[in-house]
Specification:
22% of the residues lie in helices and 29% in strands. By secondary structure, it is α+β, with helices and mostly antiparallel strands. It folds into four domains: 30 residues; 260 residues, Alpha/Beta hydrolase fold, catalytic domain (Rossmann fold); 60 residues, no CATH class; 213 residues, Jelly Rolls, CATH 2.60.120.260. Strands 13, 14, 15, 16, 17, 18, 19, 20, 21, 22 and 23 form an eleven-stranded mixed β-sheet that branches. A hairpin with a 5-residue loop joins β1 and β2.
Length: 593
Amino acid sequence: MEMWSLEIFFVFLLALIPVTLLLAIGYYFQLHHYLYCIVLKLPFPNQILIRKHISFEMEDKILLFADMYLPVGNRTYPTILMRTPYGKDSAEHNYPLIARIFAGQGYIVIIQDVRGKYSSEGIFRPFLDEEKDGKETITQIGKFKESNGKVALWGFSYLGSCAWLTTPESSPELKTIIPINCCQNAYMGWIDRGVPYLKDILMWLSKHHGKTGRIVSHEEVDKMILRLPVLEFDKRLEDGIGTFKTWMYHLHSDEYWRTFSVSQRRNEIRVPVLFMGGWFDRFVNNTVDDYIKTLGVHPGGKPAASRLVIGPWGHIPTYNFPFADFGRKASFRRQFRAMIAWLNHIMYDTPYQKFPVEYFMMGLNEWRYSNTWPPEQMRFRSYFLRSEGNANTFFGNGSILSSEPDNATEDHYIYEPENPVPSLGNRMLYGNETDGPCDQTPLYERKDILFYRSFPLVENLEIAGPIKAVIYMSSSAVDTDFAVKLCDLHPDNKSYYLINGYVRMRFLDTLFEKKGIERGAIYRIEVFLGHTAHTFLKDHRLLLQITSSDFPNHERNLNTGRSNERDSEKIKAYQTIYCGGDYLSHLILPVLK
């Protein structure tokens, strides 16, 4: 038996040798994009030339440097521009491989270091110079002898923001953009209606504000953000001190943010856009909003060619969540075929017949197609909160989410800023394995979370669209926060994060910004959880969590009514949630027929 096992083992090793050798040769000769094209079922790629460190001179004489990947041939080609603060040679971001894939399909690809980063001259000021520098770069690309005068911008996150900033009153050379996991309004990416996404801000500025990137650990930042006051964090930042303070002093979407956002200039956008986002990405709600409103400001819904694609991805769409497997169809890498088809349609005028909206239905793990978002067959359905007297414990009967309202009841809990509820399940940029559909079991023992469950479902419940909770509450504090989270509760009592929303009471209305709220008074708050598409399977249950913190995703509220950024003093808040009777707290779901 042992001899047979050894023989099988050696046969297996021998079988691996050709595959390993092929991969090694491919990587050595920089041919691994050929393998990707085979896997992605793309046409066999062209040969590629690479020109390193070409310069673009801006109007103020600053030089921005880039690498160019060109198909081998005696004709002109359209260009894909990627503008990055992360280094044009970045292997971590796979820029060289991505450039080879696109170039192999008949595109010039230019990867440019933005102003003040890596090889480019100047001073890096996040977002502030990207519109001007981007438009000047596009104009110069149109004059290249290898260029046919058509340019597209492509990229994730900050690269997507660079793309958006070129679209208002764009250069005639710009034909389309493919922004992925980003939004038109930078404020939305860093501030949640007055509440800073604290850890993401600190991580990003610490890692990427300097001339080159630096290594910053999660442990280092997690230790930093526990200290108060918040505005003294800058003493521990090596780079980004000025930007951090500026953002903390601009917690509202004011003129500062409008200088580098395009959401208020949508009527100036003339190019079709391939919008791409992930259900567990920070920017997904804004991606959906941008898609709907960009179409809406143009007569007749133009630019009509725009399209929306949303998959079950986080901010890094190739990351595999430890608590969920959405299947091979969900792989982001498969989207390269769709992106190339879109580019070929715009740049080479090839046929393109697809639905305007493509979204991934989680739970059933399948792609769906629609003419609109939300889907036309969606109808809103309410689930009412009903207290059973022990909502702040998961175990036992708990409290109910019911299709019918009930008599007046109350639930209570205490929020202590010293011990905030951890962000277990979120849409963070730097979630450190807490992002996405995370297991909620570690939260079950906490007494500062209210749990409301539906009865087991007798059939699948499909939802697709925006989710909102209407909550009636009061507090002992003059300012405090409320966090609402929707989860999928499985028959084994494990539950997994789906979506959440956050409200700071002082920002409910501009009147509350300075004077806060009245202690003990009952307020009606609407908490927007966001957009998603998910199927709660038969015998599963809805699980709604209500608490007052989501840390470190959101900055803690100190409950004093004074500045949460400048102060160190913090107090407890005694919170009450009202259910039934005159106070019909409820969850509103976008249910498909």
